[in-house]
Amino acid sequence: MTSDAPDAVKLDVAPPHYQVNHQPRGSSTDKRGGGIAAVYRDSIKVRTLDVGIPTTFEEQEVKLSLRSSVQVIIACIYRPPGRVLQEFYKQLSDLLYQLVLTGQMFVVCGDFNWPGTGGTH
């Protein structure tokens, strides 16, 4: 989904009784894919968080309020394929530090496109 996609496109992603929180990658003229989306049940209160804008990966953080006493932050990350740069480690570390500072439970998930399974990266 692009930033200029009609709302109907977002509604097509979610089954009945679900919503979509979308962080677009760009407009339809960018031709770079669709960004990151969180699909969640209508009954869950969701708030988007702003923890910075990294340059080596895309990210979206949402706070889910499941009940008045149960809240969790979901951080979804997409790192494009290619060499893992030192700046990625710094920016990921900064993101994790910001999440720890919230004092909330959190989950980090996504596509890190980590090359290979052995050796140093």
What's the SSE blueprint?
Layout: H1 7-13, E1 18-23, E2 36-41, E3 45-49, E4 58-67, E5 70-78, H2 86-101, E6 105-111
Parallel strand pairs: 5-6
Antiparallel strand pairs: 1-2, 3-4, 4-5
List keywords for this structure.
2 domains, 6 strands, 36% strand
| Sequence of secondary-structure elements | HEEEEEHE
Structural class call reads alpha+beta
Q: Helix count, per DSSP?
A: 2
Which stretches are poorly predicted, pLDDT < 50 over at least 5 residues?
Answer: none
**Number of strand elements:** 6
Write down the domain tally: 2
Coarse morphology: flat
Average pLDDT rating: 83
Strand content: 35-45%
Strands ordered across the widest β-sheet: 3-4-5-6
Fraction of residues in H or I helices? 10-25%
Reported for the largest beta sheet, the result is: 4 strands, mixed
Measured on Cα atoms, how large is the radius of gyration?
A: 16 Å
Distance between the termini: 31 Å
